[in-house]
Design brief:
The protein is an alpha/beta fold. It contains 12 helices and 9 strands. It holds the Pfam family Glyco_transf_34.
């Protein structure tokens, strides 16, 4: 009688193939790797969010025009009480519209301006603001001797909307009053990078809006050219700006001139305003040019208007 022999183990069978201990070990090993990989990915994600939030903290809040208000303060010539009034005025306005304030000190730029008048510091202050908030779309330079008098008015509705800006632009008028042969162009809103006013004698860089971009950097570098600062213009950076606009059509072709009261109304006690450049109730901004002379640490001319603004701000 023949009996069936048990099947021979294959010579090709891997050692331990039938053991349950090795697969269990592998499963534990894979599980450990998976947990470690998950931990690494989680850490990388958290780090990316951390650095992303720190980098985007310079970005304007969602839903705003990306506006940075630049105020240059000369703390050597202004009292703390006066500075507090200006800061309070700016902070109230920025908070209402989601804008950002950038307060600069003239002393921070003394090395950059060298022997030139201290008023030239507004240009490196603007560059500093642009470097600090590189994703903001607009930069609004406003004199420390000016108040925002209409706090509920946004710059978008007041000036930057396409139809609004194009309706306000002064076309074919002397760029430097009263009779410069160089005149403003007729522009479309999309072609405008710089918005300025003029008073009765000159362009007025005390209050202007600059759109962020290559033109802005080129314009500020040109304006801060050492050769211009060495000319010793009677009105320093103001006459430097007059010169640029009349001799550099590349800059003029990106500049919109608007009526003085839109952005830079002078107080009634100030001289030098354009024909319709003196402040009227309801105007957006009032400026006090005589305060620029720096004869006193407080500008008394500002006080009654500050009181008017405070009452309006509290009631709106």
């Amino acid at each position: 009688m023949q009996f069936a022999l048990p099947p021979r183990r294959s010579l090709h069978t891997l050692p331990g193939a039938n053991s349950s201990r090795l697969p269990l070990y592998r499963r534990k090993q894979l599980k450990t790797i998976a947990i470690f990989a998950f931990a690494v990915l989680t850490l990388l994600y958290l780090l990316s969010r951390l650095f992303s939030s720190s980098s985007t903290s310079l970005s304007p809040p969602a839903g705003t025009a990306g506006m940075v208000i630049v105020t240059l303060l000369d703390r050597q010539s202004l009292s703390e009480s006066y500075i507090n009034k200006i800061v309070t005025n700016r902070e109230d306005y920025a908070k209402r519209h989601g804008y950002t304030n950038f307060f600069a000190s003239v002393s921070d730029y003394e090395e950059a301006i060298g022997d030139a008048p201290r008023s030239w510091a507004l240009i490196p202050a603007m560059r500093h603001a642009m470097a600090t908030y590189p994703k903001s779309k607009y930069f609004f330079h406003l004199s420390p001797h000016a108040l925002v008098m209409n706090p509920t008015t946004s710059l978008k509705s007041h000036l930057l909307d396409r139809s609004r800006l194009e309706s306000l632009m002064l076309k074919n008028v002397p760029i430097v009053p009263p009779d410069s042969i160089i005149k403003t162009f007729a522009l479309k809103q999309k072609d405008v990078d710089l918005i300025l006013t003029q008073d009765g004698e000159d362009l007025s860089p005390s209050s202007f809006i600059l759109k962020n971009g290559d033109f802005a950097r080129f314009f500020l570098d040109l304006w801060f050219e050492p050769l211009f600062r060495s000319y010793r213009f009677a009105k320093a950076e103001t006459h430097g700006l007059d010169h640029i606009m009349q001799w550099h059509p590349t800059v003029l072709a990106r500049t919109a001139l608007v009526p003085q009261r839109i952005l830079n109304a002078y107080s009634k006690d100030s001289s030098g305003a354009s024909q319709d450049g003196s402040y009227k109730d309801g105007d957006f901004v009032i400026r006090f040019p005589s305060c620029d002379e720096g004869k006193a640490r407080d500008c008394d001319e500002l006080d009654p208007y500050y009181s008017m603004w405070s009452k309006k701000a509290k009631s709106t």
